[in-house]
Amino acid sequence: xxxxxxxxxxYEDVMLAVRGASLSVGPDRIVALLGANGAGKTTLLRAxxxxxxxxxxxxTRGHVSIDGARVDTRSPAGVVRAGVGQVMEGRRxxxxxxxxxxxxVGGHTSAARGLQDKLDRIYSMFPVLADRRRSQxxxxxxxxxxxxxxxxxxxxxxxxxxxxEPSLGLAPQMVERIRDLIVExxxxxxxxLLIEQNxxxxxxxxxxxxxxxxxxxxxxxxxxxxxxxxxxxxxxLGLGSEGSSLRDVKHYKRRKRWLS
Length: 260
Ligand SMILES: Nc1ncnc2c1ncn2[C@@H]1O[C@H](COP(=O)(O)OP(=O)(O)O)[C@@H](O)[C@H]1O
Ligand SMILES: [Mg+2]
Hints:
Blueprint: E1 2-11, E2 15-25, E3 30-34, H1 41-49, E4 57-66, E5 69-70, H2 76-81, E6 84-87, H3 99-106, H4 112-125, H5 127-131, H6 142-154, E7 160-164, H7 172-187, E8 191-196, H8 199-205, E9 208-213, E10 216-222, H9 223-228, H10 230-235, H11 244-259
Parallel strand pairs: 3-8, 3-9, 6-7, 7-8
Antiparallel strand pairs: 1-2, 1-4, 4-5, 9-10
Helix pairs in contact: 3-6
The structure holds adenosine-5'-diphosphate and magnesium ion.
């Protein structure tokens, strides 16, 4: 179990970005983390992957653990060794490297023989990457780059894969393919934390979900319950029909209920 316990994160000693967030991802689960821009989702992911330092962030309370052992004190490489892979916001591939070179970077901890097996496995999962293995990553489409970023993370054989808004900026058809890949990766035995503003996509595959607002995890429920929740429908699935002022009052009342 990968778990975040009552986490508080401050940037530059002053900016309180996460104010008490908790979540857990079981080894066989897909867990969605929903929330508007600025809610603190990416900050939470940085705290889970040892990347707060480079952003001048610090954990001021709480911790992150895998099977009870703390991982928030580890370096980014140490977190990868502990079995956590990630795909950062905005698909950070090395644009001047070829597709295969990008994948090799992801598998750099593997022995040479194991590396070829892993490449073969990734290519069978992502045929489009196999076709383009000698192309520079910068020439791939946005969706293909997202696949490459996912493939690169999978080269390290993670027990948990954390994805930060993988559907952002992609055409609906490509979002579907990313969604199917997430299901496929999970059925291969990898636990997934799926950070998304696209709540419809995330809740269509997740077993469980959390909603984050202003640095707090304010909802924690099975995905089917979140899909049926009136507030989630109004604010995250765009299915609301009421005027905004009425909606705000109702939202506030319900928020009080969630928080109490
Ligand atoms: N490196 C940083 N320095 C200072 N503030 C930051 C930094 N990164 C993010 N923040 C702030 O922290 C809050 C949470 O941001 P973020 O975690 O990126 O939210 P989300 O991913 O949900 O959009 C925002 O107010 C954002 O402006
Ligand atoms: Mg973000």
